[in-house]
Amino acid sequence: MSVLERRGSEGRISAWFDHPTVRALRRNPSAVAGAVVVATLALLAVVGPILAPYDPNAQHLDNRLQGPSFAHPLGTDQLGRDVATRLLYGARITLGIAVLITAVRLTIGVAVGLVAGYCGGWVDETLMRVVDVLLAFPGIVLALVVAGILGPSLTNLVLALAVVGWTRYARIVRSSVLELRERPFVAASRLTGAPRRRVLRRHVLPNVAGPVVVLATLDLGGVVLAAAGLSFLGLGAQPPTPEWGTMLSTGRHHLREASWLVNAPGLAIVLAVLGTNLLGDGLRDALDPNDRTERGGQTEVTRD
Amino acid sequence: MSYVLRRIASSTVVLFGVTVLTYGLIHLTPGDPARTVLAERQGRQPDEETVREFRAEQGLDDPVPVQYANWLGDALRGDLGRSYYGEGDVLDLLVAHLPNTIELAGASVLVAVAIALPAGVISAVYRDTWIDYASQIVSLLGLSMPNFWLGYLLIIGGALRLGVFPVYGAGTLAHLVLPAITLGTGMAAVLTRLVRSSLLETLEEPYVDAARSRGLAERGVVVAHALRTALLPVVTMIGLQLGAVLGGAVVVEVVFQRPGLGTLLVDAVFARDFPVIQGVTLLVGVTFVAVNLLTDLAYRRLDPRISIGGGGA
Known about the structure:
Chain A is mostly helical. Chain A has helices spanning 2-7, 13-18, 20-26, 29-51, 83-119, 121-135, 139-150, 154-164, 167-181, 184-191, 196-232, 244-251, 260-287, 294-302. In chain B, helix 5 (90-125) packs across helix 12 and helix 7 (147-161) crosses helix 12 (242-255).
């Protein structure tokens, strides 16, 4: 959101709220719905542990696999732990690592894109071949291998998904830089002898921020799915960590008698992904209402 | 023709890069596979003698580049090595597991197209009506659905409650239904949105207006004139989605306990069975690069606006 804040003069909330991009978003009901879902989940991730009535890891073996009730609105799991509490704690982990992964992807991608676009020549050539190779392989399969080889843990999951997913950011930034380089204001700044770093920061970065923010928002949903998927396979958070994919994975052994153990985390994941997808679609339309070619490409972004 | 050759050449280079990448990843990470594998095989910590023997036998003492060159040389002759766990030749393992995965991927693409084509066309024709909104909402849900959860929902509904389909395993058509729906749904969502937007765009083209002005019924215009062009990007997208399908197949195979490349890979990853991991990733890489190449060429064939022999890129 930093781009929105920066443009919304002096960062005052009213000014921010009246920013053209935000106004366009407010007129789009599905984007508003997405923003509300994302904001609610983010809030729950922050205050969840305060709201949660129980200890997420407290086992009550005499109270196992109880269906939803007043005391346990989402029932209890195979160890008698409160599912609602675990979901609330899990929001922090599942959404936290998704944001972290996306942030790392964005950072690597923007850096590579800037360097490749601005330096050109053999640097550009080499970096883009690396991108080609990474794109020539299904990202999730590569992430599975990387995470598995490094050993199952949350850190390695973040590393694996970040390493395989930065290429699209790099491509977008690189092509923007190539285009911007030729614009008069950038050329003028270069000619006045401004150092490379300043030209990049002052003139190039602000202009690539829009597409990058859109890509990151759309990417976030896919990252939530990928991270939960790998955790489901046993390659991310390890039990008893209340990560949503891990919860679903342990719940699957009780499909017959306790289907809420897979349905509660499943629903939570859908909400998170749906929210970011709606918001991402809205942001894209708001920042670039005329861009119709991206409509096909968007879906590629949300599921890899 | 030169374009085709150039594409094949660059695909080969990319594929070479893919093998370097996966081989490097697997073999440069810390941890000694010999110890892990032997401990697993023998059920206790292996003694130094066995570890040394194993390392020598598997060529693990050579520097990694030498190991890679040996592996590549063997692979080019069709020898992908043997599983660390004595489960036999990697190539045999791949051949044994491949059919189930192909079957699943093929059936999923069929499911996806069978849903997306009518849904996308109806959405575009009845643009901005409730039926269009409903279809868009359903697509968005399909996009946001983790396929492992959808799989369990289908298992709970279709197998446990209704008892119509077998829960786990592979082999018969009944075994294929639930996994194919699970894997096909995400792709159907992607394709529905694409068919809709692509058709909407085509319907505004002058030649479509020309067909309308000749007095053709709207249905004829859509089917005979617009759809053909509109489906071009859809063909490409089906090819591009193959990566998602292969990735999704891993999870879906685990959910439905289907023996396939996905389950083979997951088991090998947990067991650190390097030759098997390397073999599966090589096969996935080759398939992916080949399908991308074929998609690109098919697109150029189908689209009259691009000539293959001409200017090239």
